[in-house]
Amino acid sequence: MSIFIFEDNIIQAEQMRNDIKKICHENNISYDFIEVTSRNERLIERISETTKTPIYFLDIEIKGDNRKGLEVAQQIRKLDENGIIVFVTTHANFAPISYQYMVSALTFIDKNLHYDKRNQLIKQCLIHYKKKNESEQTTDDFILNNKYTAVRVPFNEINYIKTSEPHRLVLITDKRVIQFYSSLKEVQQSDARLLRCHRSYLVNHEKIKTYDKEKRMVILQNNEEIPVSRRLVRKVLDHIKGES
Amino acid sequence: MYVYDLIAIILIAISHVYLYLNLIKYKQMSWRLLTTISVIFTILLMIIVTATGFPEFNALLLLTFLLSLGLLQQKHGLTFAENLFYALFSLVIITIYRMILIEIIFYLFMLSPFNLYRWTGSVIHLISTLIIFMTLIISRKQIVRATRFITQSKLYNMTYTLLTVTFFILLALTTFSTNMLNPSHATYSQMGYLISIVLFLLLLIIFVISSHLSRVKLEEDQQEQLDNVLLDYTEKLEVMHDELTSFRHDYINILLSLDSAIRNENIDEIERIYFNTIAPTSKIINNKELDLFKLSKININEVKSVITVKTIEAQQKNIKIIIDIPEEINDINMPVIPFIRAISIILDNAIEEAEHSTNRKVAIAFFEIDGTQSFIVRNSSTETELDLQSLYEKHYTMKGSNRGIGLFSLKRLIEQFPHVVLETEFDNTFFTQKLTLRAIHDHS
Questions:
Q1: Rounded to the nearest 5°, which phi and psi values hold at B414?
Q2: What pTM was estimated for this model as a whole?
Q3: Which of B170, B209, B215 is nearest to B193 (CA)?
């Protein structure tokens, strides 16, 4: 649980350190140390000293190099998969999407924002950091990697996976639909937690609310209905009973 | 019966079924199932033919069998006429091809110094069947493409007739066991044989021509698509040029009015002109040009022009576009033409949707991580809730507009490329489409 600030302007860096200290104090957020540096070697070195999930505030433009922040973020990701990365930048609309995906950055903070507004954003980030550290639960991802695709989704978001065309699967969460190349058999082999309830359906049993005997359907928490095939009814029922 | 014969017969059945399934585009059958069905069918056929003593059942049953397999595809819009055409095609082509092959190999064998044994015929039979099978597997794509082309061209009716005639001649050729037809068979078999070969050659010519024509058509289609992209691009450039001209014209007028204000030393007027008219122009210049400049990182012209055209289109509709291409892109991990089609659909939808929203924003990102490319488009939306799954159904459009059109074709398009993942997200009034293209050379 540590906080890193990567910034080459000494005045801004000190300002940020003080702001963060103040916010942490007010909101009862604990940390082991705050590291303020403009040298990436120093930052990378100290990652090994951290416990749990650290948070990194990175300036994108360091010493005139406007890709330095991203490079550092990529280095961090190699050592620390779960750390929270926040970019602090003067270029507000500077490459938001690609950075988010490339290093899964949490958000961007615009240096030009009004002092209060900016501190509000920093506070949100720190509260996220606090929550993540308190829950202790490392994010548990569903990962499928075959020679064609690599799909990665937090397991608890998955509702179900179904076949759409031969060898084409659709993974469904509350907010997302992902279409990729694989087979249910392959998915089942790579993640045994998913429950086969039908020839073309795999369901996340954590999402099952109830079973409708008449329609022979499993009903999910979001009220979606998934068919259950006759010969798998037994297995599905056992699973639901085992849950409750 | 030699084991060679048995294998050959089963292989022939498999070839028929395989070609037929390819023609009707039914791809859900595994090799194991295909083999099992063919073996069972062969056994069934042998029992019926030996029990009844009518070899003509051979062809008839096979035809019925193929036709009934076609039922699998009927719900996908396969008509009976087409079904019959494909069944006849598979039946006639393979049978005559085999006939000719056996004849040729036998002839070659007679020329060779090898001795003739009783099993030689069976081996030749097997070899020719193997050749047929290999030909089918190797050139199935060309065969399917050419046949599909025939069904849509003027040659369709002629080919149909030729196939039917050949089928009946083949039927006549095999019926030597029926007493009734035996005498006529004895007289006409040689002629029937000859006619069937002639017909086969005719079919072959049609086939070769169609194969060539279909390739030409494919190339033309692709060229046309590229031309359209280019045409769009030039049009947009013209529009931009017009805008620039009118901007220049306005600017000169502003300068003139400044000129007179300065001459009169009217500082209030000068201030008014500056703040009201001149200062806002810096915004216009900044906004529009900078983002287009980022597109120069894409080094594939077709892709660059598509994104440019869509960007200008969006800007004309007063949508704020953010382009996010951090690094150079030198090639696309999939064929360029389908990629262009896919991103056109995605961008059209995004622009259309953003136009109706209050935020009026579209962000386009294109970048590569460890060889995997991501093309992401995010747009503001009017909807608060969206059923993502039904979005990809065939006739889906959102209420009251044309939005959502093309997503079904997008899905169909993507399905042809195993290494492409399509991800759709709707969160907090922002709609995101993400195409992930894995590097193809990873496959080994």
A1: -65, -35
A2: 0.64
A3: B170
pLDDT single digits (tens) B297-330: 888 888 888 888 888 888 888 888 888 888 889 9
- Which CA distances in Å does B302 have to B47, B59, B339, B340, B413? 61, 52, 10, 8, 18
Do A101 and B374 form a contact (C-beta atoms < 8 A)? yes
Say yes or no: B219 contacts chain A, CB-CB below 8 A: no
Please report the DSSP string for A19-68 in residue order.
Answer: HHHHHHHHHT---S-EEEES-HHHHHHHHTT--S--EEEEES-BTTBTTH
Cβ separation of A98 and B365 shorter than 8 Å? yes
Q: How many CB atoms lie within 10 A of CB B177?
A: 14
Q: Do B418 and A149 touch (CB under 8 A)?
A: yes
A192 touches chain B (CB under 8 A): no
pLDDT in the model for residue B442: 45
For range A218-237, the mean pLDDT? 88
**Is the model more confident about B180 or about B373?**
B373
Question: Which ipTM score applies to this complex?
Answer: 0.77
pLDDT surpasses 70 at A243:
no
| Ranges A9-18, B110-119, B363-372: which has the least confidence | B110-119
Q: Tokens 């892709």, residue?
A: B303
Of A85-89, A135-139, B84-88, B326-330, which gets the smallest average pLDDT?
Answer: A135-139
CA dihedral of residues A101, A105, A106, A111 (deg, nearest 10): -120
Shortest Cα–Cα distance, A103 to chain B (Å)? 10
* Helix ranges, B112-181 (H): 120-138, 140-152, 155-174
The sign of the dihedral angle between the CA atoms of A78, A82, A88, A89 is positive
Q: Which pLDDT band holds residue B177 (cuts at 50, 70, 90)? A: very low
Q: Pick B367's closest partner by Cβ from A102, A164, A172.
A: A102
Mean of all residue pLDDT scores within chain A: 84
Q: Indicate yes or no: CB of B389 within 8 angstroms of CB of A170.
A: yes
Residue-by-residue DSSP string for chain A: --EEEE-S-HHHHHHHHHHHHHHHHHHT---S-EEEES-HHHHHHHHTT--S--EEEEES-BTTBTTHHHHHHHHHHHH-SS-EEEEEES-TTSSHHHHHHHH---EEEETTS-HHHHHHHHHHHHHHHHHHHHH-PPP-EEEEE-SS-EEEEEGGGEEEEEEEETTEEEEEESSEEEEEE--HHHHHHH-TTEEEEETTEEEEGGGEEEEETTTTEEEETT--EEE--GGGHHHHHHHHHHH-
The neighbour count for residue B286, using CB atoms within 10 Å, is: 10
Residues 6+ apart with CB under 8 A from B265: none
Parallel/antiparallel/unpaired status of strands A158-165 and A168-173: antiparallel
Angle at the Cα of A134 from the Cα atoms of A129 and A139, rounded to 5 degrees: 75
pLDDT of B178 above 80: no
How big is chain B by its Cα radius of gyration, in Å? 33
Over 80: is that where the pLDDT of B278 sits?
Answer: no
DSSP SS3 for B423: strand
Length of chain B: 444
Span of A23-27, B9-13, B24-28, B411-415 with lowest mean pLDDT: B24-28
